Amino acid sequence: MAKAGWQRRAYSIDAMRQMARAALPRPVFDFADGGAEDEQTLRRNESGFDDLQLLPQPLRGAAQRDLSVTLFGKQLNLPVIVGPTGLAGLFWPDGERCAARAAAAVGTGYCLSHGSVCTLEQLAAVGAPPRWMQVFIYRDRGFTRELTERAASCGYDALVLTSDNQLLGNRERDIRNGFTIPPRFGPAEIMAMAFKPGWLWRMRSELKRITFGNYLKPGEIVDIGTLAGRMASLLDPSMSWKDVEELRKIWRGPLLLKGILHPDEAKAAIERGIDGVIVSNHGGRQLNGAPASIDALPAVVDAVGGRVPVLMDGGVRRGADVVKALALGAAACLVGRPQLWGLAVAGEAGVAHMLEIYRREIDRVLGLCGIGRIADIDRQLLFTRYRQDPT
To answer: How far apart are CA 201 and CA 194, in angstroms?
Structure first.
């Protein structure tokens, strides 16, 4: 069957990004695409992979490649997981559930953002496993417990505690564009939307219903602006390891800590019963000047010493990037912005296509390097200072 026109043009993750730019109003695209302040960390997340070179041994032969990995007792068909991104429903109607269905069809995991448009219960009803839930430590510790207990009752497979969002980052693209939550509909905004008729037509009945579903109280009817204010007021810079310990007592399943860059924090997390760490700088959207995730990964992996899985996100735009991260010790990579680009291009089909791009590229890289299984990737694959054997 011939590919649709958009599929032929969406030949890479960057091509999907450019298609999303063309499809979305500028403020909406920049909301996903932008980072904090001068965006050095955002750019370094991507460029850091350029410092790593692959050292192939094609004569080992890899006629068949197995891309599967096992995490927390669940087998995934590829080492790429759809990470948490807020307001996915702003990019395509019912965006979160579209992305979850696409991930399930491909055979990989999906993590729901705390800031999703749908509720965690609505996402769970899709039945897409494995599914993870993102939570924060809130000023109202009771609300942290409430979200955790709701995730448990809905059968979420893992809980992801994000630690690097205790203050909102200074995202200057949003300031420059006048982007607000909820989106404003003044003359300038209406003009910008008018130039994106496809998005406006799809979202015509959705825009007034965009909300933060997980923050609504039962029977409550409030606008999204009120909910956004509630979310911001709940962020707590005073959170500490004591809070992590308390959450560990509440949640009985796999608990991951996302936002790790310092190896000492990785060690401390394991001491407190964390089951996995995610090396992340929040996509460069929080602390500008923080190291790229790929740069921080090796020291965290060494500090963990194989005791728990180490995952990473940030700047993963090619299958080769995934392979390089795995060579440095990551168990899998999460992707955030690429799922939003996929949604903007073609909804559920766009996210499925995005994941297929990663699958195809990872498979090709392994074949060219003479590697038949993900489990056989190690630092010997890298022609860099990280190689264990300098010869």
So the answer is: 10
d(CA 355, CA 383): 27
For tokens 């197995």, name the residue. 66
Q: How far is CA 120 from CA 19, 85, 329, 385, in A?
A: 29, 13, 31, 43
Residues 6+ apart with CB under 8 A from 77: 67, 68, 106, 107, 108, 359
Active-site residue (options: 114, 262, 282, 353): 282
pTM: 0.94
Instruction: Provide the 3-class DSSP secondary structure of residue 53.
Output: coil
The answer for residues whose C-beta is within 8 angstroms of residue 253's C-beta and 6 or more apart is: 152, 156, 157, 158, 159
Token look-up 């010869």 returns 391
How far, in Å, CA of 25 to CA of 350, rounded? 18
CA distance 78 to 92: 25
- Residues shown for the chain: 391
**HSE-CB for 242 with a 13 A CA cutoff:** 3
- Side chain identity at 283, as an amino acid letter? G
Closest CA to 80 of 297, 351, 344, 349: 351
CATH superfamily of 5-381: Aldolase class I (3.20.20.70)
Query: Among this protein's residues, is 282 annotated catalytic?
Result: yes
Residue spans per domain, the chain: 5-381
Dist. CA 377–CA 363, nearest whole Å: 13
SS3 208: helix
CA distances from 238 to 139, 163, 269, 315 (A): 8, 11, 17, 29
Task: List the chain pLDDT tens, one digit each, 391 residues.
Answer: 456 789 999 999 999 999 999 999 999 999 999 999 999 999 999 999 999 999 999 999 899 999 999 999 999 999 999 999 999 999 999 999 999 999 999 999 999 999 999 999 999 999 988 999 999 999 999 999 999 999 999 999 999 999 998 888 999 999 998 887 666 656 666 677 778 989 989 998 888 788 888 988 766 667 777 777 787 888 899 999 999 999 999 999 999 999 999 999 999 999 999 999 999 999 999 999 999 999 999 999 999 999 999 999 999 999 999 999 999 999 999 999 999 999 999 999 999 999 999 999 999 999 999 999 999 999 999 996 655 554 4
